[in-house]
Amino acid sequence: xxxxxAKTRCSYSAISSLLMSTICxxxxxxxxxxxLNSTFYxxxxxxxxxxxxxxxxxxxxxxxxxxxxxxxxxxxxxFVNGCDGSILLDNSGSIQSxxxxxxxxxxxxxxxxxxxxxxxxxxxxxxxxxxxxxxALAAEASVSLSGGPSWNVLLGRRDSLSxxxxxxxxxxxxxxxxxxxxxxxxxxxxxxxTDLVALSGAHTFGRSQCRLFSNRLYNFSGTGNPDxxxxxxxxxxxxxxxxxxxxxxxxxNLDPTTPDGFDNNYFSNLQNxxxxxxxxxxxxxxxxxxxxxxxxxxxxxxxxxxxxxxQSMINMxxxxxxxxxxxxxxxxxxxxxGS
Length: 339
Hints:
By secondary structure, the protein is mainly alpha-helical. It is built from 13 helices and four strands. The strands form two sheets. A two-stranded antiparallel ribbon has the order 1-2. The N terminus is likely disordered. It comes from Xanthoceras sorbifolium. InterPro entries: Haem_peroxidase, Haem_peroxidase_sf, Peroxidase_pln, Peroxidases_AS, Peroxidases_heam-ligand_BS, Secretory_peroxidase.
């Protein structure tokens, strides 16, 4: 098995420092993924990051949730056949869309914003920037514009020619799963326990539908009682928001303290038994789990969380990209060229 080469990269560009202090992170560069680099579009589309950032900023003005929705698209894309833009493909004669998979249907959103970004990018640099890279850039912009860290997004991915709905149904971690299953799903794509805890911290902003956590509120795992790891006052609040026979589509803040800001409060919430999803709270409440120490570290040190989150986003973005002559650069993110 090939070893990895650790390289430290920092951005000190004047533009970056004006926008936000960029975290210096140690990147693990895998030889098979070395074709991804932060300057991939330096000559072919030098303004791509600015175009994406401006579009995300505009979208945030009318939709406070959109940042969390966009990072989720990148996450759900990367966990299925790698970061290849497959989640963006609509149904066609030959494609069963990942949008209709269980983890995504009536849940993933922000596709219209991705289309708007793609249009703006195509107007500036036609047939150059992939939809997969747009998702990676939009995720970074969503985090940094919401008060979180900034990082140099590695670029050069190409877009898939197909989707994998079955893979989306089995590979994407579920909010109903136990910690061991979720850890296994992260491990299957080369991500470790620190990556799991850091990336879970993206639940520091955004919303969740009642149907994704109501199992914890009334009859958890067939006990006839609520999940015992739920803070009792928080439980009461959630039961009022999500009545037992409600529609299941009402929304709750993933972070009840600072719902639209990217910070480390998510981890303090876990310490207070205020994790919204079962998969959130298990990071802290699973006795003896390696995740507990990491949660405590991030809860007490936001800078440590931010640095780990940036590195873990880079790690996730490195999952099995299509590069070189593989795949294509879609002109419309919703469909394969020529279809």
